[in-house]
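Worked Example 4.2. Read the sequence first, then its structure tokens.
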Amino acid sequence: MLTPREYLDHLTGLGCTVDAWETTYVHLLTGPDPVLDWVRGTGLRPVLDALAADPEERDAFLDAYRAALRTAYPPGPHGTPFPFRRVFVVARRDGGR
């Protein structure tokens, strides 16, 4: 993923008028492994699919990843804050095309 500035530079170079911005949503997740549960439904799916043929390797990966996520995203008093970065870009060409 590019930064908003990189999208702006690239798309204005193609002759577009560009609005580009970034925001970070901080989700408050709950449960014993909330970040792992969050990524299981999205970006982790291809990894788990690739490891499906070897359940022991899959479980070892999940154990190590779970530990890393717990360290990177420790729970707070009301849940686990999870920053979720999003980049938005709107590009227009003259003439509305």
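Now turn to a second chain, presented in exactly the same format:
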Amino acid sequence: MTAYRGEIWLINLNPIKKNNEIGKIRPALILQNDELNSGDYPTTIILPLTTSLIDDAEPLRYRIHKREKLEKDSDVLIANIRAINNARFIEKLASLSNTELFTIKNLLDEVLL
């Protein structure tokens, strides 16, 4: 199993340790670069998605419209970046365009810088 940057995968984020952490089995965007993704690196940096939509929530959220196996419109939770063990990956659901990835990177820069 190799996940690539810009793909959305179904991921098991349980168990959670704190109430404000995102849990459950849910889609997540692969953010980590493909050099690490295709190596033997044991973790991957992701951004979780939610179907609890909030309009006009940038830079904290970015709306992704349903496509491929992603069955519902979802918000990427920009501020919930995390690294997960690769054993948590379940199934590839969809891929984002380069334009969408560029926008998400810019939103992440706004949150982090």
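Notes for the reader: Residues 51 and 74 are 5 Å apart (CA to CA). Strands lie at 7-12, 25-30, 43-50, 61-64, 74-77, 82-85, 89-95.
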